Amino acid sequence: MLRTGSRVLLDGPSGIGKTRLVATLTRDAPVECGAAEIDGRAVGDFGPAALRGLILHLPQRPGIMRGTLGENLRLAAPRAGDAALWQALEQADLGVWARSRAGLDTDLAETGADLSGGMRQRISLARAFLAESPVMVFDESFSEIDEAGAMRILAALETRFPERLLIFIAHNGPVRGLDFDQRITLSSIAPLRLSSRGETPNQRENAREKAV
């Protein structure tokens, strides 16, 4: 069971099925055995739109549409004002870059072809800061971001979303140094589940303060 406010690392070798396991929560993959539930309800009881509102999945290679930076950010929050968009850009370590271009009016090519992989990931992370989903899955979402930038964004996530369930998949990089509540390792034998923090509320809060 993954609880609200937890930080979880879903671990295991490449190809073991980490992304597919997460996809069972969003109904992008079938549950072949066992059950996938949210708040005690089977994921099959939720419609696609409801699941999208509950679970935000940030893939390694995010989609970028042709248009302005502001339009791309508002995919996550259509009614967000400019101030909220700028705050998200700062939290995603994109503020300096955006100000050096045309700000929210910066034109982006289809699929973000004019951007590096790290910039595309930062834009996706900026959308995450605007989203209201209580569950957020970061699926190799920092793999092309430099270590210093990734650490700043991770610290901003911890500060911004202390009450949300954050699930991370990462083979390397600073993500793996986070103070996780649980590490779930998938293998060909059986999943191994470890708790890296205390189980009492005070222990868990103290650990989170140290991580920040």
From TrEMBL:
Q: Which GO terms describe its molecular function?
A: ATP binding
Which residue ranges does the record assign to the AAA+ ATPase domain? Answer: 4-196
Enumerate the SMART domains for this protein.
Answer: AAA
- Which keywords does UniProt give here? ATP-binding, Nucleotide-binding
The answer to whether the entry has keyword Transcription is no
What Gene3D superfamilies does this protein map onto? P-loop containing nucleotide triphosphate hydrolases
Is this entry keyworded Lyase? no
- What InterPro entries does the entry give? AAA+_ATPase (IPR003593), ABC_transporter-like_ATP-bd (IPR003439), ABC_transporter-like_CS (IPR017871), P-loop_NTPase (IPR027417), Type_1_exporter (IPR039421)
Signal peptide start-end: none
> PANTHER family in the record, alphabetically?
ATP-BINDING CASSETTE SUB-FAMILY B MEMBER 10, MITOCHONDRIAL, ATP-DEPENDENT PERMEASE MDL1, MITOCHONDRIAL
Name this polypeptide is given = ABC transporter ATP-binding protein
Native source species: Paracoccus cavernae
